[in-house]
Amino acid sequence: MINRVRPGVDPYQVLVGGGVEDEDSGLEAALLREVREEIAGEATDLRPFHRFESDKGETEHFYTARVTAWNFDDRSGPEFSRDDRGEYLFEEVPLTAEAVGALNLMPPQIKAALLAAVDGGALPAAA
């Protein structure tokens, strides 16, 4: 998870990801680029997990993946060079109902989907 700390806003968490850029060949290529930019990581085993339409009318796609390596100190996304964006703090969170339930995860729809998947056994709980 990435903890977002911004002035005047309660801290919240987001998953690694972002929009599809013109140079991305598709959703999975965009996700792999975002993993490289946001956590200087590599991911495998990408699988579609959940999608929904946002309040802005955009379809948001979420994937599960195995992140095999990362180095948060080497992240390179453009958002990290802007002082007005607040802090981005990396945190590993166990994939349990208790841990996910304690998060202020945005958007709320992905928190609900994760909790349902963990409770229903669709995702393995992590110790």
From TrEMBL:
InterPro entries the record matches: NUDIX_hydrolase-like_dom_sf, NUDIX_hydrolase_dom
Span of domain Nudix hydrolase: 11-87
Any Pfam family hit: NUDIX
Source domain of life: Bacteria
* Protein name (record): Nudix hydrolase domain-containing protein
Q: What organism does the record attribute this protein to?
A: Kitasatospora setae (strain ATCC 33774 / DSM 43861 / JCM 3304 / KCC A-0304 / NBRC 14216 / KM-6054) (Streptomyces setae)
